[in-house]
């Protein structure tokens, strides 16, 4: 909360940030039930459905329809196709990812705005140092951030494991060393 306040995100916007995060989490709790023998489904009206709809500000019927059907425009006709369980799960997960990615983009935009005073930059910036050095993209996506984070965690795990093995080898060889 303090960090969001430091970058000048209003109380109302902070509440909306947490509402969207909660919606992403509630989306994961939405389940489906079969409606026919062709494996078509519909979303179950339960706490997950009600909470998600309320948090993202839509009607339950609209959310159910979004998660259980796909609309396609063919020439001048609109075709509505019922989804299978696998397709509906993918649609639910895609919606969660989209909300999260949009929230990420919005937060980055707000942080960037807070680093600018009037029309002149303050000189402050946020950069991420990864195993290959600093990266400077005009636009860094949520996916790229996740990739960088995963790579860093893997590198950290590898380094810890490697150092532990080296330290054990030093002990076996009787080498005097300072524990890292």
Automatic annotation (TrEMBL):
**SMART domains, A to Z:** MYSc
Bilayer-crossing regions: none
Q: Gene3D superfamilies from the entry?
A: 1.20.58.530, Kinesin motor domain, Myosin VI head, motor domain, U50 subdomain
**Which BP terms in the Gene Ontology apply to this protein?**
actin filament organization
Q: Does the keyword 4Fe-4S apply?
A: no
What are the recorded GO MF terms, alphabetically? actin filament binding; ATP binding; microfilament motor activity
| Myosin motor domain sequence ranges | 1-180
This protein's GO CC annotations: cytoplasm; membrane; myosin complex
Query: Keywords in UniProt for this one?
Result: Actin-binding, ATP-binding, Motor protein, Myosin, Nucleotide-binding
Please state which protein family the record places this protein in.
Belongs to the TRAFAC class myosin-kinesin ATPase superfamily. Myosin family.
- Full protein name: Myosin motor domain-containing protein
């Amino acid at each position: 909360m303090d960090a969001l306040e430091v970058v000048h995100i209003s109380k109302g916007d902070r509440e909306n940030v947490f509402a969207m995060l909660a919606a992403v989490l509630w989306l994961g709790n939405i389940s489906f039930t079969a409606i026919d023998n062709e494996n078509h489904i519909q979303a179950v009206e339960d706490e997950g459905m009600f909470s998600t709809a309320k948090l993202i500000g839509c009607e339950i019927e609209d959310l159910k329809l979004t998660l259980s059907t796909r609309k396609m425009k063919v020439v001048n006709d609109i075709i509505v196709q019922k989804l299978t369980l696998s397709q509906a799960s993918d649609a639910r997960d895609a919606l969660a990812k989209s909300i999260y990615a949009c929230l990420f983009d919005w937060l980055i935009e707000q942080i960037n705005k807070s680093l600018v005073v009037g029309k002149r930059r303050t000189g402050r910036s946020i950069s991420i140092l990864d195993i290959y050095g600093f990266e400077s993209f005009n636009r860094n996506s949520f996916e790229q951030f996740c990739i960088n984070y995963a790579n860093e965690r893997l590198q950290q795990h590898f380094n810890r494991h490697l150092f532990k093995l080296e330290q054990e080898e030093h002990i076996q060889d009787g080498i005097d060393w300072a524990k890292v």
